[in-house]
Specification:
Elements lengths: L1 H12 L3 H16 L7 H15 L3 H17 L4 H15 L5 H16 L4 H6 L1 H12 L4 H17 L3 H4 L1 H11 L4 H17 L4 H11 L5 H17 L11 H9 L3 H15 L4 H20 L4 H17 L7 H12 L4 H32 L5 H18 L6 H13 L6 H12 L6 H13 L5 H18 L5 H14 L12 H12 L5 H13 L3 H14 L8 H11 L6 H19 L10 H9 L7 H17 L5 H10 L6 H21 L2 H17 L3 H14 L10 H8 L1
Length: 737
């Protein structure tokens, strides 16, 4: 045996490459068959180390490292050999080009650690071991990294001084958690477990980073994260200063869509919650994490904002007292509800409902204070959170609803009423239909809000709004919606402000629009208010919409004062310069024609001159609709009597026969035709004799084919009986020609 050892030793030390190869191949075969004498390690250790360290032939270095691995795995290792393996590995590892040799070297060190129980050896070689592991973890070959993770686990189990080197493994392991293939990432995450357990001070450098990597990780990596953090949370002291940093990953695991991840997170959570004093520690941890959650809410990274929303929901769900950090939580939820990422918005809404279930009064009080400090703050986002708090409150409380909470619900509904959001309507539907015992004065405020609400989807919004009014009438003890509107409208519209002060966004103006335009309820009160608004307001848009509402309601409007209507219309058709004045003048003219057409304004001898004079100038207005309305009203004046300025009116109408607008030309022709036919029946020959000839002359000169056709129609109707028109002599001949 001694002779064999000497021969093998000399062969390994030989300068001849073939000799070294033959010896290594023989030893390698015996190693693979596990036929190597474990005592050979002490005899062949030096030449094997020398070959691995410096031989230029790669396969010889690989064979020597494999033999060395077999000897260290199955044999005992002395302190000197352990130290030599570690030292030469550190010196060779980074320079070794072969991935397989580096992998085998890592395995040799792993085997050496498993075979070494003498603690002073670890302490003596602590720096070298740390350096070796860091080199292996940073290796570009994934298998080497995985072996390095195994070494870290082995060191934590065998080395009593592991806590002194654990910190140094954090940075290289975290680098691979986000960059290596999945299996390597899983191993790196698992290797972080003993690091955090033996050195809890490393948790701030690990847990928050894993949280950042969470969204980009595969389900297997997420499962490894949950398992690792879960084991750490169960092994370190519950009162550790960094314990709170472990909760986010466990809570994110509970939200995960993969069952393996969520089930494991739930299992860990149950174990944690069964521990004495857990809820106290959890509440304390939440307070520590609030600043971080607030910062993540405004992060540019979409995934981090989604995770922040999930965490807020989980904390609100599990925290024993949801009033804890409520002001900051409300601030976060309002910010999240306005996020452009739907998951962020949805998680925030779910959290708001949970808050509404247990501390609606405090949350609504906070919202109320915010609206008082800055009425424009948290508008749409605040409304979203408000509506979900109210829904949570109403669903959780089945009876004996607190009066102060109901009062805040109504007050905030009033403050949010300027927003065009369906969520406020849904909130009002729940408040009214659930019959929560709202007093009459608060119900009147809800009626005010409902009537003033505007929605972007007018068809569905309007139908739901009308449907909401019926239960409101019932809660107020009234038989139907019309009765409720008639009784409550005067106080609702006059209690806020003077109509002259209304703007297009004023709630009373919105209510007036809804009642007059959508419900078509224009009684004396509404009519008087519209007239006051038109006369007093300085807002052109309000005047325009008021005229449009009156115009659209003329067919069914009842009980209005014709004198008041006439005075209001004539005051607004007077010519004024400017684009806005032109639009308002056109609206007033159209409203006047609708009033005349539907007999709400009768043209009679007593007012014919006033009306004719007011509209005479509008026949030449720049707006086509204004000219058309003026022509039709003047036609009605000429049919109703003989205005003092008859000749001027006829001349004015004749002048529109060459109008640039075809509609105006045809309107003028139709008007003149009807007037001439009417006057012919009345025997009005004097005025007809001149104007009839002028009309035919103008029409005959018109190159427009429709005008000629129209002229032919007029002549046919007028030449039926020329004798009745007393057109004789030269005039008659001129007409025939």
């Amino acid at each position: 045996m001694e002779i064999e050892k000497d021969v093998v030793y000399k062969q390994l030390e030989s300068e001849d490459k073939s000799t070294r190869r033959a010896a290594l191949l023989d030893l390698k075969k015996r190693a693979e068959k596990r036929q190597l004498d474990e005592h050979l390690l002490s005899d062949l250790f030096d030449p094997l180390i020398k070959i691995v360290f410096s031989d230029k032939v790669e396969n010889l270095r690989e064979s020597a490292s494999i033999i060395l691995l077999a000897l260290t795995t199955h044999g005992s290792i002395s302190t000197a050999q352990f130290q030599a393996i570690v030292n030469f590995s550190v010196d060779r590892f980074e320079a070794e080009p072969s991935e397989e040799v580096r992998l085998t070297l890592a395995r040799v060190n792993h085997a050496a650690i498993l075979n070494q129980n003498v603690q002073p050896v670890y302490l003596e070689n602590l720096d070298k071991l740390t350096q070796l592991v860091k080199l292996a973890v940073r290796d570009r070959y994934g298998e080497v990294v995985k072996e390095a993770c195994e070494i870290i686990t082995a060191l934590s189990e065998r080395n009593e001084y592991f806590r002194l080197q654990a910190d140094f493994f954090v940075e290289p392991l975290m680098q691979h958690v986000k960059s290596q293939p999945m299996k390597v990432r899983v191993m790196c995450v698992k290797a972080l477990e003993p690091v955090m357990i033996y050195s809890p001070l490393t948790i701030p450098n690990i847990a928050p980073q894993l949280e950042i990597f969470w969204s980009e990780s595969s389900p297997m990596v997420k499962l490894a994260m949950v398992l690792t953090i879960g084991k750490v949370s169960l092994k370190i002291e519950p009162d550790d200063q960094n314990f709170h940093l472990l909760f986010p990953l466990i809570l994110l695991g509970r939200c995960n869509e993969f069952n393996e991840v969520s089930d494991e997170a739930e299992r860990i959570w149950k174990v944690l919650t069964d521990e004495p004093g857990f809820h106290r520690r959890f509440a304390k941890s939440f307070s520590k994490l609030v600043p971080k959650l607030l910062a993540d809410t405004e992060n540019w990274n979409n995934d981090l904002r989604i995770q922040s929303a999930q965490l807020i929901y989980q904390f609100v769900r599990e925290i024993p007292d949801r009033k804890l950090e409520l002001s900051t939580v409300m601030e976060i939820l309002i910010f999240q509800s306005g996020d452009d990422q739907a998951p962020v918005h949805n998680w925030a809404c779910k959290a708001a409902r949970l808050i509404g279930e247990t501390c609606a009064l405090e949350a609504l009080s906070w919202l109320s204070d915010q609206k008082q400090e800055d009425p424009e703050a948290t508008n749409a986002s605040g409304l979203t959170i408000y509506s979900h708090i109210v829904h949570g409150f109403l669903n959780a409380v089945q009876s004996h609803y607190p009066a102060r909470t109901l009062e805040l619900c109504v007050q905030l509904a009033v403050r949010f009423s300027s927003l065009k959001e369906i969520s406020l309507l849904e909130c009002l539907e729940t408040l009214v239909e659930k019959d929560v015992g709202i007093p009459v004065d608060l119900m009147n405020q809800l009626l005010f809000v409902t009537l003033s609400l505007e929605g972007s989807d007018q068809s569905d919004f309007l139908s739901r709004k009308l449907s909401l009014l019926q239960p409101m009438a019932s809660r107020l003890g009234l038989s139907n919606i019309d009765t409720m509107i008639q009784q409550r409208l005067p106080s609702l519209l006059t209690s806020e402000s003077d109509p002259a002060q209304w703007t297009i966004t004023s709630p009373p103006w919105k209510i007036l629009q809804f009642v007059a335009r959508d419900m078509k309820m224009i009684d004396n009160f509404v009519f008087d208010l519209l007239c006051q608004t038109i006369a007093a307001t300085q807002c052109p848009e309000i005047k325009l919409k008021s005229f449009n509402m009156l115009t659209g309601s003329m067919s069914h409007i009842q009980c209005i004062d014709p004198a008041q209507l006439q005075a209001m219309l004539l005051a607004n058709v007077k010519w004024k310069p400017g684009r806005s004045a032109s639009v308002l003048r056109s609206s007033a003219a159209l409203c006047a024609y609708a009033a005349v057409q539907h007999r709400k304004l009768e043209i009679i001898p007593s007012n014919v001159d006033a009306i004719a004079n007011s509209f005479a100038d509008l026949v030449e207005d720049e707006a086509v609709n204004t000219r058309l309305a003026a022509i039709r009203i003047i036609q009605r004046c000429l049919l109703a009597g003989r205005p003092a300025n008859l000749d001027s009116l006829l001349t004015t109408l004749m002048g529109r026969l060459n109008d640039i607008s075809k509609d105006v030309r045809q309107g003028a022709m139709a008007g003149l035709r009807d007037v001439f036919i009417h006057w012919r029946g009345q025997g009005a020959s004097c005025a007809m004799e001149t104007k009839f000839v002028d009309l035919v002359r103008v029409l005959a000169l018109d190159d427009d084919l429709p005008s000629k056709t129209f002229a032919d129609g007029i002549l046919q109707s007028m030449l039926v009986d020329l004798s009745k028109m007393d057109i004789t002599g030269e005039k008659g001949s001129e007409v025939v020609e």
